Amino acid sequence: HVQLVESGGGLVQAGDSLQLSCSVSGATVSSYCLAWFRRRPQRVREAMARMSVDGVPTYDDSVQGRFTISRDSAKNALILQMNTVNPGDSAMYYCAADTKGPGCTEYEALYDIWGQGTQVTVSS
User: Fold this and answer.
1) pLDDT for residue 101
2) Nearest 5°: CA angle at 56, between 51 and 60?
3) Rounded distance, CA 91 to CA 33, Å?
4) Separation in Å, CA 2 to CA 17, 29, 32, 87, 90
5) Coil/strand/helix, residue 44
């Protein structure tokens, strides 16, 4: 069965860069729509970026131009490159897969496989 394991979170300063990785097992990284969500304190979980099976990325407006989602086929991992982070990016970041398809949306309820999350904290 498909499993997702996130890594790369930590404490950084505003303006820094950080790279998150989601290791995929039980499938190839290009098998399903994969997405990065985050949950900020006292907020609902939000979709930040997602990549369709055919490799098309989509971003939330709040991270467009700062975050980049990509696939590392050699490592079978989904990558989130976070640049110019700010305190508002502090959150628990989750990797998720929609294994039922066929679309690739921002709707949390459609994602059926989730990682355990990795914490990102940005100090000002």
Assistant:
1) 80
2) 60
3) 22
4) 29, 10, 10, 32, 27
5) coil
What are the tokens at 74? 């050699």
**Phi, psi for residue 110 in degrees, rounded to 5:** -85, -10
Query: Both tokens of residue 20?
Result: 């998150």
Q: Is the dihedral of CA 59, 62, 64, 70 positive or negative?
A: negative
- Which amino acid does the sequence have at 107? Y
Q: How far apart are the first and last CA of the chain?
A: 41
Is the CB of residue 21 less than 8 Å from the CB of residue 74? Answer: no
What's the pLDDT tens digit per position in 11-60?
Answer: 999 999 999 999 999 999 999 999 999 999 899 999 999 999 999 999 99
| pLDDT per position as a tens digit, 66-81 | 999 999 999 999 999 9
**Given this model, what pLDDT does residue 102 score?**
87
